[in-house]
Amino acid sequence: MTLLAETLVVNGLAEDFIAGLKQIIEHLKVKDIMNQDPQTLTPEKSLWHAKELMRLKKISGVPVVDDKGKLVGIVSIEDIIIALEKGYIRDPIEKHMSRNVIYLKPDESVQTAIEYFERYGYGRFPVVDEIKRVVGVITKEDILRGLLKWFSVVYTHDERRNNVLESEYYYRSLITGEPLDKKGADFAFEIDYSDVNLAGVGAAKLKKFLTDKGLPPDVVRRVSIATYEAETNVVIHSGSHGIIYCFLSDSSVKVRVEDYGKGIEDVELAMQEGYSAAPDYVRELGFGAGMGLANMKRFSDKMMIVSEVGKGVIVEMLFYLDREEGSKATQNP
Amino acid sequence: MTLKEVAEILEAEVLTGHDKLDEIVVERVAAADMMSDVLAFSQPKILLITGLNTPQVPRTVSIVDGVGAVIVRKNMVPQTTIDLAKALGIPLLHSRLSMFEACGRLYQKGLKPVDSLS
Hints:
heterodimer; A: alpha+beta; elongated; B: alpha/beta; Udp-n-acetylmuramoylalanyl-d-glutamate--2,6- Diaminopimelate Ligase, Chain: A, domain 1; globular
């Protein structure tokens, strides 16, 4: 028994673990993990051509298809070795390819694929549609990669959420320390981090919301700019989803932006104007000049940021409706 | 100076906001490729000149309460950018001039920069 399995048994979790694993494998289909853009060859091409393709693409076998893309055979690296040995590498593929090809269908389960690998001992299987056109190739490596990917998705999602949820900051205001009722937020927006072009949609919505509430244009502008930067940071840096909350009071607007992402290693360094961890493509969007946190600080009256690597970032900003009144209040508490 | 005059001076194609060209008056101009700079130093009612052509351009102008944007030098402006400008009600112009020449021409005609960059 492996150490992992042993630990799980001790904790009484082994059954859960295996059940979970089985569920993932059952739900995962061949089409989810196959290579969807496989190399193919036509029968009149030479074995030498097949050898070059395998060498250049670092693959160990190629499906052979007719002019309509239908599977007619397969040529593997073993065929090439024999061809070199016997001196017929310049022959056309059709003369020597295996014609009795075992294949899989896109909707078959990964479990079936694993059984095929065990039963037939081949390194790869072509995947064909209902009229036998090749739509993919699946290898053992694809299965391993597919499973690992599924695990990491499940793992990071749960882990990150819990880390933030358990943190003491989660239900309290970072600035005033008072409990926060997030369900009672006046405005909430879930940030879509998957498309960088959508960065700023939440800030634009918040701007409209505050304008409709009749807040002074100057305040609306400050809140929108700072929120825009915070939202862009979530999209660019966190690699995870986030939420914008806004709370209104008679004297202030409070914005809180949370994400479940990578976190910031050194907040002090990140606060410095001109410091940026942004990748190059972000600069093409006009961000990533290291102004983000500095801009948030510039336009808000109070700002707090809490982060830990791997546990996400919480930024809270307070904007006084009347900046002079607000600063008096802080100077003479 | 109206936005219409700006379009003429810059030999710009009007992508959105045709109906507002005569009413919008431009006094101050900011030129930048970094949207964070625009957010940091802008003031309301500016016209933005930029070499960017992404949807972030109309979105930034909208957030800072600008009057419009001129995209310079780029060969084309993506439809997503144009659609967003339309949705946000931001007039968008496209000029083939370089940023330097676009700014130079407008400065010569008396347009002003944003207030001191403090």
